């Protein structure tokens, strides 16, 4: 357990939903808790902050037990060294930006002048030195987000929690704010946990990703590993890969009822095969030559995807393919059309499950 | 395309009659006001005395209600405790109870021979009935539910996540209440306070039963109106009523835009 600032096994039962995830975060590390809506991300964040008590497991921050139902230990939120940036910021509407940031230091026994000096310093660090007197309703979304960040950081929390910190912003502000947030997270000496359903936020801001589905951790690792080797459909969709699970036998993986994919990787036993939609080629007739994986499929859906078209096909396996509009015109694409799908073995990746 | 929406007659007619029914008595009051002798009437010391007493007691009663009612409303809105529904039901009892009955009940509890009153009398030589303090108590008893109910509504409408945010910043529940919750629900508390004050100002039944009707001590405006009327001085009663009406309308108008407008 040494080296971990945060060591937790979060178990929360609520009705039929059960959250059970293990989390360890090192000092200076930013971890993203990524998952679909309803996966339990926010419940995990609330449990860490002390807003929802654990029903099992434990939470240790900086060597102190904050929540341990078995030992009947529970530290209330106001005594935890944990800061939270809430999804819609929750800046106190009756207080100025400066008083919002000074609120935490004031509650920790700091006198008014010192608290205001701290607040001014933090507002300056987030680039809002001249906005201290404004009320939250006079701030733009991006500014409010930065005040909320300053408010949480002004207490030098051992653990900083961010709940969808960019979700409430429009696309352009999000880009700037994300870069700025990244700067602050890098500078933050404590641990940080980012809860998000946006893979881009997670990839840009976090050192490590923890993917949660249905209250459980389904995959964990750095961005490169997860984007290269997704282990669930959700993750595969997030990173835009076709993903299949099956049984490997050398260079082939049987993925569905006798249908096998050929790969250049070697796997044995339970295995995943993944390849990007751009690796899929479509042909009006059965192709000859090099591609080792070919099968016949029915087109079910066409959608614009960037400059290309994303086509979905039913067959022995469901597959997404990206093709250029020119190729689409040539193929006369329409739902129900029979096509031949080809995927080069060299473009697939296989790995054990 | 705009379409003229017609108000159905079965709704329009009762609505208009209802409005007339509410406004007509006020018109009657204004029509019968002796405008020419009004200045002398207003200058009479009894009028000033009753008005001052009414203002004083209803303001004190409102303060009393705020001190006890806001915490009570907070308990009802924020704390899960057994019997909460029962407590809420009990609070609404004075709301539906005829005020005279409330006055009798207050006498039995706080009167010289009452449950708590006898103990107060024996140990402190202190007796509430038939004193100005008794007026304040009677008015507070009747007005408290108005405050509790409207403040509880405001608290329930306020976003409790602000209190959670305050907690993560190190605020205890008490500090959260004073520094975050109270400022957030201040408009609701003000609205409740106004309702409470207006109810206390108009209080009659509980006051006359519990505190009696002594000019200068317990005779508030409504009691003065009643007594003047009883003594055959209709004009005097009209003048007093007009003052009460003017005070109420002024308060309502002053606060309406800030706190009392419903969206």
CATH fold-level label of the largest domain in chain A: Rossmann fold
Multimerization status: heterodimer
Q: What are the secondary-structure elements of chain A, in order, as H or E? A: EEEHEEEEHHHEHEHEEHHEEEEEEHEE
Q: What class would the helix/strand composition of chain B place it in?
A: mainly alpha
Written account of the structure:
The complex is a heterodimer of chains A (about 350) and B (about 260). Chain A is α+β, with helices and mostly antiparallel strands. Chain A folds into two domains: about 5-235, Rossmann fold; about 240-350, OB fold (Dihydrolipoamide Acetyltransferase, E2P), CATH 2.40.50.100. Helices cover about 25% and strands about 40% of the residues of chain A. Chain A has helices spanning about 40-50, 95-105, 110-125, 140-155, 170-185, 200-205, 225-230, 235-240, 325-330; strands spanning about 5-15, 15-25, 30-35, 55-60, 65-70, 75, 80-85, 160-165, 190-195, 210-215, 215-220, 240-255, 260-275, 280-285, 295-305, 310-315, 320-325, 340-345, 350. In chain A, strands 7-8-9-3-10-11 form a six-stranded mixed sheet, sandwiched between helices. Chain A is elongated and about 80 Å long. Chain B is an all-alpha fold and about 260 residues long. Chain B has a single domain (about 45-260), classed as MetI-like fold (Orthogonal Bundle), CATH 1.10.3720. Helices cover about 75% and strands about 0% of the residues of chain B. Chain B is globular. The interface of A and B includes residues 79, 82, 83 and 152 of A.
């Amino acid at each position: 357990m040494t080296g971990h600032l945060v060591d937790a096994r979060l178990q929360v039962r609520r009705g039929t939903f059960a959250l059970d995830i293990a989390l360890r975060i090192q000092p200076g590390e930013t971890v993203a808790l990524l998952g679909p809506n309803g996966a339990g991300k926010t419940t995990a964040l609330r449990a860490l902050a002390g807003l929802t008590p654990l029903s099992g497991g434990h939470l240790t921050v900086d060597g102190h037990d904050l929540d341990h139902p078995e030992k009947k230990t529970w530290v209330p939120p106001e005594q935890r060294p944990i800061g939270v940036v809430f999804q819609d910021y929750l800046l106190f509407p009756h207080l100025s930006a400066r008083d919002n940031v000074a609120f935490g230091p004031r509650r920790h026994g700091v006198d008014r002048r010192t608290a205001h000096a701290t607040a001014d310093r933090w507002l300056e660090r987030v680039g809002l030195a001249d906005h201290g007197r404004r009320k939250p309703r006079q701030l733009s979304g991006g500014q409010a987000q930065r005040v909320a960040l300053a408010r949480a950081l002004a207490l030098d929390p051992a653990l900083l929690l961010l709940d969808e910190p960019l979700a409430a912003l429009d696309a352009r502000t999000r880009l700037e704010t994300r870069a700025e947030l990244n700067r602050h997270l890098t500078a933050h000496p404590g641990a940080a946990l980012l809860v998000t359903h946006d893979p881009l936020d997670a990839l840009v801001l976090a050192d490590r990703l923890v993917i949660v589905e249905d209250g459980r951790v389904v995959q964990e690792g750095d961005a490169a590993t997860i984007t290269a080797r997704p282990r669930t459909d959700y993750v595969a969709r997030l990173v835009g890969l076709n993903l299949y699970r099956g049984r490997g036998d050398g260079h082939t993986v049987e993925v569905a009822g006798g249908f096998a994919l050929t790969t250049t990787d070697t796997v044995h036993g339970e295995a995943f095969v993944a390849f990007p939609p751009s690796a899929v080629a479509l042909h009006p007739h059965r192709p000859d030559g090099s591609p080792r994986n070919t099968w016949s499929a029915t087109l079910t859906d066409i959608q614009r995807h960037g400059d290309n078209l994303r086509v979905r096909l039913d067959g022995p396996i469901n597959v997404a393919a990206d093709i250029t509009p020119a190729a689409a015109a040539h193929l006369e694409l329409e739902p129900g059309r029979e096509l031949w799908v080809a995927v080069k073995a060299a473009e697939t990746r296989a790995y054990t499950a | 395309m705009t379409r003229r929406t017609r108000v159905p007659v079965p709704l329009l007619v009762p609505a208009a009659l209802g409005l007339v029914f509410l406004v007509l008595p006020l018109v009657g009051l204004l029509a019968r006001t002796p405008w020419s002798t009004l200045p002398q009437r207003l200058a009479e010391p009894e009028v000033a005395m009753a008005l001052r007493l009414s203002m004083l007691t209803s303001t004190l009663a409102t303060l009393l209600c705020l001190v006890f009612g806001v915490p009570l409303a907070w308990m009802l809105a924020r704390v899960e405790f057994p019997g909460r529904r029962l407590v809420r039901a009990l609070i609404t009892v004075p709301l539906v109870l005829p005020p005279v009955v409330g006055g009798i009940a207050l006498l039995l509890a706080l009167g010289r021979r009452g449950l708590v009153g006898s103990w107060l009398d024996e140990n402190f030589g202190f007796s509430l009935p038939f004193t100005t303090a008794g007026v304040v108590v009677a008015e507070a008893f009747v007005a408290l539910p108005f405050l509790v109910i409207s403040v509880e509504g405001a608290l329930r409408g306020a976003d409790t996540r602000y209190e959670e945010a305050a907690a993560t910043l190190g605020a205890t529940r008490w500090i959260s209440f004073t520094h975050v919750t109270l400022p957030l629900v201040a408009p609701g508390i003000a609205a409740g306070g106004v309702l409470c004050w207006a109810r206390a100002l108009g209080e009659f039944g509980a006051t006359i039963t519990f505190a009696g009707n002594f000019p200068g001590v317990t005779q508030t405006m409504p009691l003065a109106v009643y007594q003047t009327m009883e003594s055959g001085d209709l004009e005097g009663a009209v003048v007093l009523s007009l003052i009460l009406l003017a005070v109420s309308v002024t308060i309502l108008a002053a606060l309406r835009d800030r706190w009392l407008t419903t969206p």
